[in-house]
Amino acid sequence: FRSDEAGKAASKAGKDFGLTGLRAAEVGAAAAGKACADATLAKGITLENAAMEAGRCAARMGEAEDLSEEASAEIAAEVAGRVVGEALIGAGRPTQQAAEESGRAAAKAGVAAGLAPA
Fold this sequence. Notes:
Layout lengths: L1 H15 L4 H22 L4 H18 L4 H22 L4 H18 L6
Helix pairs in contact: 1-2, 2-3, 2-4, 3-4, 3-5, 4-5
């Protein structure tokens, strides 16, 4: 997967620049999720599905980088929310609407990745 390559490269770069192993792993997981989102959106997949896939990619990379299941799920939620928020703001949607939809996407991805529902 290209997203895995992006995650590994980001993690390595983080370590090279002095990040702790934990923080570098988090950066790698987020980069993997973002690369995954870009690839799935380019294929014409819906924004909601692309956000969920990005969350799964981020969680998978987090676990591969030895993050806890909870930390990986939190990154999955963050990445999914960011994907939706950035896309909606970029499309000119009102900030409040983008924030609400981003929050819903983050919650859905977080629960799917293993976080307990609120």
